[in-house]
Amino acid sequence: MTEKEQYKAAFSALRPSDGLNLEVEHMANLRKKNIIKATATALAVSLLVFGGSGAAYAANLGNIQRTVQVWMNGDQTDASLEISGDGTYSLTFVDVDGVEHTRGGGGKAFDIFGNEVPLTEEQIMQQLQMPEVITSKDGRVMVYYFDQAIDITDNFKNGKCHVQLTNAATGETVYLTAYDNGGYAFNTSKYID
Amino acid sequence: MKLPVDVLAERYQNNIYSAAFNICRNPQDAEDVVQETFLKYYCIHKDFEDEEHIRAWLLRVAINKAKNQVLSFWHKNKQALDDYIETLAFETPESEDLFETVMMLPEKMRIVIHLFYYEDYSVKEIARILKISESNVKVRLNRGRELLKGKLKEE
C-alpha cells in the first residue's frame, strides 16, 4: 500500500451519523423558507392582523398562545398558534372534513449583523400568510394563497412554473416561481429564477 | 454552475466530515460543520466553474467553520476523542494506530496532511484552499511526515 492508501484506509472509518443527510436537507429547506420570507418582507402587515380585509387576527393576548384565523389550503379556519422562545411555532387547526392537523415551522432569521435571532410573532404570522406550494399524495402540485387553490401540475416548463397571485382584498400581487424539485420562491415585484 | 445540495451531500459529505473532524476532533462539532457548510452553499449566490471548484470551496468553508468551532465555548464540553475512536470500525490495528497518531499532531499539520493524503490535493492546491503560501504548506507537510514516521510505511 502507498502512504496515501494507508492514510485513506485509516480515515475511511470516519463517517457522519446516518441521520445527517436528512438533517442537511431539512435545514436547507428551513433556511430557504427564511430566505423567501426575507425577500417577501414587502408583503404588507395589513394582510396579517385583524379580520375583514386581512386573513388572520390575534384573539388571545397571551405571550405563548394565540387563536388566529388563517387560510389553509384555500379554506379559512380558526387555528391555535403556539410560539416558543426559540422562534419555532406549532399551528393546530381542523380542516373542512373535521380532521385535526398540526404543522410547525419558524426558527431563526438573520439580523442585519448576520446574527441568528428567533423569529418574532409578526414574522411567523407573515410566514403563515405566504403562498404555499404543496404536492398532494396523488402527485398534483397545488398553489395556495389565501382563498386561492390553483393546480399547476401541468404548467411546468423547463423545470419551473410561474404563477401570478393577487390578494383580492388588498390588491397585493405576488410573483411565485415553483420548481419541479418541490422548491419555490416568490417576490412582490418580479419572478425569482 | 451550481449542483443541488442533495447531490453534493451524497458525494462529499464524508469528505467534509473528515476534514472537519480532522480539525475539531469531535463528531458533534464535525457534523455541525457539515450542516453549516451545505447550508452556506445552498444560500450563496455563486457561479462555480465546475464540480472541482465546488469541492474545493466546500472544503475551504468547512475548514474555516471547523476552526471557528474549535474556538467556541461549546467545543470544550463534548465527547472525548478517545471515546469516539473506540466506536470507529478500523479495518486493521495499523489503521487505528495511524488515525490516533494523526489526531495527536498539531492542528495546522493535521489539515495539511489530510488534504494531501486523503483529498489528493497538490501543495499548490492546498495553499490555495488554506490561503497560505506553498512554502508554508511544504514545511507543515514535511514536519507532519516526520512525526508520522514509522506509521506511514510505503510497501
Describe the protein in words.
With 193 residues, chain A is α+β, with helices and mostly antiparallel strands. Chain A folds into two domains: 18-130, no CATH class; 131-193, no CATH class. In chain A, 19% of the residues lie in helices and 35% in strands. Chain A is built from three helices and twelve strands. Chain A has a four-stranded antiparallel beta sheet with strand order 1-2-3-4, covered by helices on one side. Chain A has a three-stranded antiparallel beta sheet with strand order 7-8-9, with no helix packed on it. Chain A is extended and about 70 Å long. Chain A starts with a helix and ends in a 6-residue tail after the last strand. The model of chain A is unreliable at 35-62 (pLDDT under 50). By secondary structure, chain B is mainly alpha-helical. Chain B folds into two domains: 1-88, Orthogonal Bundle (Rna Polymerase Sigma Factor, Chain: A); 91-155, Arc Repressor Mutant, subunit A, CATH 1.10.10. Helix content of chain B is 71%, strand content 0%. Chain B contains eight helices and no strands. Chain B is globular. The model of chain B has no long low-confidence stretch (mean pLDDT 89). At the A-B interface, helix 1 and helix 2 of A face helix 1, helix 2, helix 5 and helix 6 of B.
